[in-house]
Design a protein that fits this description.
The chain has 414 residues and is of the alpha+beta class. It folds into 2 domains: 10-75 and 190-253 and 352-402, FAD/NAD(P)-binding domain, CATH 3.50.50; 130-185 and 254-349, D-Amino Acid Oxidase, subunit A, domain 2 (D-Amino Acid Oxidase, Chain A, domain 2, 2-Layer Sandwich). The chain has helices at residues 44-53, 88-95, 97-121, 142-154, 164-171, 189-202, 314-332, 376-391; strands at residues 10-12, 34-40, 60-64, 79-81, 128-135, 160-163, 177-186, 206-209, 213-219, 222-227, 232-240, 256-265, 278-282, 288-292, 298-305, 339-349, 356-359, 366-370. The strands form 2 sheets. Strands 1, 4, 5, 6, 7, 12, 13, 14, 15 and 16 form a 10-stranded mixed beta sheet that branches. Strands 2, 3, 8, 9, 10, 11, 17 and 18 form an 8-stranded mixed beta sheet that branches. Helix 3 (97-121) packs across helix 8 (376-391).
C-alpha cells in the first residue's frame, strides 16, 4: 500500500500536455542505495525543490511513480500570483496582522525570485509578467474591496482600487469595483516544470520514474524508503512534494480536496487588448479566473466543487466547459470563439489558504509540502527556499508561518 493517497490528478487533455519540450529523461530504477536527499514528486514543487538542492554538495534523487510532469502541474492554469486565495483582511483575522503581512510579503518576494530564476536561466516556458485584476463578486462587494485595498496599501503593498465607472471605461467590465496590482505572472507550467527538472539533473540530481514509495521509516538519523520494486532506499532526508496526494500519516480532516475545471480557446481568440496584460479573478464562490497565452489563447477556469472526485465526471466536464465559456464571454463582452481544450483537476486547500511546509511530526528528517490552494507555483517556490535552507543548516525567517499547527484550527459550530 502506498504511503501517499492516490488520486487522478487531472482528466482529459490539458492545453500544456500537447506543447513541446515537456519530456524529461529518467531512469527506471535508482542507481544507488543511499542518497543525501530523496525528493518524492516531479511536479513543479519537486522540480523547484530539486533545483534548489542540486548545488553539487549532496547526492540527490528525485523519484515519482508517474512520468515526469505527469501530475497536477499539468492541469495548472499557471496564474502566478503574489495574492493568495484568502484576502489580506481575512487572513489577518485568522492568523494575526503581523503574520498575515509576512505571508503576503513572502509571496510577493517568491514571485520576484521565480521570475529572476527563469530570466537568468533563460528558461523557455512562455513566462510573462502580468498585472492582476481582482473583481468584485458575491463574496466581496466594492466597499469590501476598497477596504482591502486600503489594508494592503497600509501594509506596504501597492494596490489600486478601481470604482465602477473607471472599470467600465478602462476595461469594459460591468462590476462595482476591482483591485489592480502588479507583481504577478503567467507561464506554461509543463515547460517550466520540465526545464527546472533538467536544470536539477545538470546539477547532479538523479531522476527515476516508475517505482512507488510503499513504506517509510525514520530511525537512527536516516530515512528508509521501501519501493514497489522491492528495493529499500536509505537517505539522510526525504522531502515529499506529492501535491494533493497527501502522506497518509499527515492527512487531516481540515485538508480539503477541491475539484476544478479549465478551458482554453483557439489561438488568437477574440479578446480585449488589455487582457493580455492581466490575470483576472473575482471575489465570488465559485469564482472565475482567466489569463491569456503568448499565442493569444484565453485560458480560464473555475466552477470549483468541494468534492475530490467530481472532476472525474465526464458529464460535468462538458457542462462546466460551457458555463466557464459563457461567463468569460459575458464578463469580457465578446464571444471568445471555439473552445479547443477542456480539462479538470484537483487541488488541496487548508482553512487559511496557506501551505504546510514542515518536518512530519514524529518522523525526523522527513519533510512534506502540502495544501497549496490556488497558488501552487508561488508556494512551491517558497517551499524550495524554506526546505533548502533547513537542509543546509539554516533557519528560514518565515519557517514558523507554514509549520504544522501554525494556524489555528477552524472553530466548529455550536
Amino acid at each position: 500500500m502506498s504511503v501517499t493517497k492516490k488520486r487522478d490528478l487531472h482528466t482529459d487533455t490539458p492545453l500544456w500536455s500537447l506543447t513541446p519540450r515537456i519530456g524529461v529523461r529518467s531512469h527506471a530504477v535508482p542507481l544507488k542505495q543511499y542518497y543525501d536527499v530523496v525528493i518524492v514528486g516531479t511536479g513543479i514543487s519537486g522540480a523547484l525543490m530539486a533545483h534548489a538542492l542540486a548545488d553539487g554538495t549532496r547526492s540527490l534523487l528525485v523519484i515519482d511513480r508517474r512520468k515526469p510532469v505527469g501530475g497536477s502541474s499539468l492541469a495548472s492554469t499557471a496564474m502566478i500570483q503574489h495574492e493568495i486565495d484568502v484576502p489580506l483582511g481575512k487572513l489577518q483575522q485568522r492568523i494575526g496582522k503581523a503574520k498575515a503581512k509576512r505571508v503576503w510579503a513572502r509571496s510577493m518576494d517568491a514571485v520576484e525570485k521565480l521570475a529572476s530564476k527563469i530570466e537568468y536561466l533563460n528558461i523557455g516556458c512562455g513566462f510573462a509578467r502580468k498585472r492582476a485584476l481582482f473583481l468584485s463578486g458575491d463574496e466581496m462587494g466594492w466597499r469590501a474591496l476598497r477596504d482591502e485595498a486600503g489594508l494592503r496599501n497600509g501594509a506596504g503593498f501597492d494596490a489600486q482600487f478601481i470604482d465602477a465607472a473607471a472599470l467600465r471605461s478602462g476595461y469594459g467590465i460591468d462590476r462595482t469595483g476591482a483591485i489592480l496590482t502588479d507583481c504577478s505572472a503567467s507561464a506554461n507550467p509543463a515547460q517550466m516544470t520540465a526545464e527546472f527538472l533538467r536544470q536539477a539533473v545538470r546539477g547532479g540530481a538523479e531522476l527515476v520514474c516508475g517505482p512507488e514509495v510503499m513504506d517509510i521509516s525514520s530511525k537512527s538519523g536516516e530515512v528508509e524508503l521501501v519501493l514497489s520494486s522491492g528495493e529499500t532506499l536509505r537517505c539522510g532526508n526525504a522531502v515529499f512534494c506529492t501535491g494533493y496526494e497527501f502522506l497518509d500519516s499527515v492527512a487531516r480532516a481540515d485538508h480539503s480536496i477541491i475539484s476544478t475545471w479549465a478551458i482554453a480557446t483557439r489561438a488568437n481568440a477574440p479578446r480585449p487588448e488589455w487582457l493580455d496584460d492581466c490575470l483576472v479573478w473575482e471575489a465570488a464562490d465559485p469564482y472565475l479566473y482567466m489569463r491569456t497565452t503568448s499565442d493569444g489563447r484565453i485560458v480560464a477556469g473555475g466552477e470549483d466543487e468541494d468534492d475530490p472526485r467530481a472532476h472525474e465526471d465526464q458529464r460535468k466536464l462538458k457542462a462546466k466547459q460551457k458555463t466557464i465559456a459563457r461567463k468569460v464571454s459575458t464578463l469580457l463582452g465578446c464571444q471568445i470563439g471555439e473552445i479547443e481544450f477542456a480539462w479538470a483537476g484537483a487541488f488541496g486547500v487548508t482553512p487559511t489558504g496557506l501551505p504546510i511546509i514542515d518536518e512530519v511530526p514524529g518522523m525526523r528528517h522527513v519533510f512534506t509540502v502540502m495544501g497549496y490552494g490556488g497558488n501552487g507555483i508561488t508556494f512551491s517556490q517558497i517551499a524550495s527556499e524554506i526546505i533548502s535552507a533547513k537542509l543546509s543548516g539554516h533557519r528560514d525567517k518565515d519557517f514558523d508561518l507554514f509549520r504544522f499547527g501554525a494556524a489555528p484550527a477552524p472553530r466548529k459550530a455550536a
